[in-house]
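Reminder to self: C-alpha cells first, then the designed residues, so the page reads top to bottom the way the pipeline ran.
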C-alpha cells in the first residue's frame, strides 16, 4: 500500500465506487467522462479578461481538479484530453476571448501551457483521490493545490518562453494575480467530494 494512501480508506475514486454498485457501471463511467468534459467547458464560460495579462480569470482549473478527483487518474486525464480535443476541432469549449486564438491555435497561444497541463493535473488529483485524499476536507484541499501547482507550472513555463522571456514578469502577470482567487476557490470546492462521500454512507 502506498504511503500516500489515507489510512482506513478503500482505494478507488468516487466514480469507481458508484460504478461498482451500479448495474450500469461501464455506462456510468462513460457518462461521467462526458459530464466532466461538459462541466469543464461550462466553467470556461465564466471568465473575466485582465488588462495587464493575456491570461484571463476563469473557473476552468477548479473544474479540472474536481472532476479529476471524482473520476480518478485515468478517467480524469481522459476527460481533460477529450476537452482539449473538443477545442481543437473547433467546438466553443475554451474561454471566450477576443484576443486569444480560437480552436486548435489556442493550444499554441499564450495560455497553451495551462491547457496542456490539464490532463496531467487531473491525473495527479485523481491518483490522490483514489488513495482516499478526497474523503476529508484537508487532504482534498492539498490534492487540489497539488493539481493547481501543476497547472501553474505548465502555464508559467510556456508563458515565459513565448511571451515574457522573464520568469519574474510571468509570475507578476500570469500567476501571482490569480493565486489568491484560485486558492480561495479551492478552499470552497474542497468540501464537495468529502460531502458526497459522507452522504453516500448514510
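Designed residues (202 positions):
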Amino acid at each position: 500500500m502506498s504511503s500516500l494512501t489515507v489510512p482506513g480508506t478503500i482505494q478507488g475514486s468516487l466514480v469507481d465506487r458508484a460504478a461498482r454498485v451500479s448495474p450500469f457501471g461501464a455506462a456510468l463511467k462513460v457518462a461521467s467522462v462526458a459530464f466532466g468534459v461538459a462541466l469543464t467547458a461550462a466553467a470556461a464560460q465564466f471568465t473575466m479578461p485582465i488588462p495587464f495579462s493575456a491570461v484571463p480569470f476563469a473557473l476552468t482549473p477548479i473544474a479540472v481538479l474536481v472532476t479529476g478527483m471524482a473520476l480518478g487518474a485515468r478517467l480524469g486525464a481522459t476527460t481533460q484530453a477529450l476537452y482539449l480535443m473538443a477545442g481543437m476541432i473547433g467546438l466553443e469549449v475554451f474561454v471566450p476571448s477576443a484576443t486569444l486564438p480560437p480552436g486548435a491555435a489556442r493550444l499554441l497561444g499564450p495560455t497553451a501551457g495551462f491547457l496542456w497541463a490539464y490532463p496531467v493535473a487531473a491525473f495527479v488529483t485523481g491518483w490522490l483521490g483514489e488513495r482516499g485524499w478526497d474523503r476529508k476536507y484537508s487532504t482534498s484541499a492539498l490534492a487540489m493545490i497539488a493539481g493547481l501547482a501543476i497547472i501553474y507550472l505548465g502555464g508559467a513555463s510556456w508563458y515565459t518562453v513565448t511571451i515574457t522571456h522573464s520568469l519574474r514578469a510571468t509570475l507578476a502577470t500570469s500567476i501571482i494575480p490569480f493565486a489568491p482567487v484560485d486558492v480561495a476557490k479551492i478552499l470552497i470546492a474542497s468540501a464537495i467530494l468529502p460531502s458526497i462521500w459522507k452522504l453516500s454512507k448514510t
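The first strand starts at residue 47 and ends at 48.
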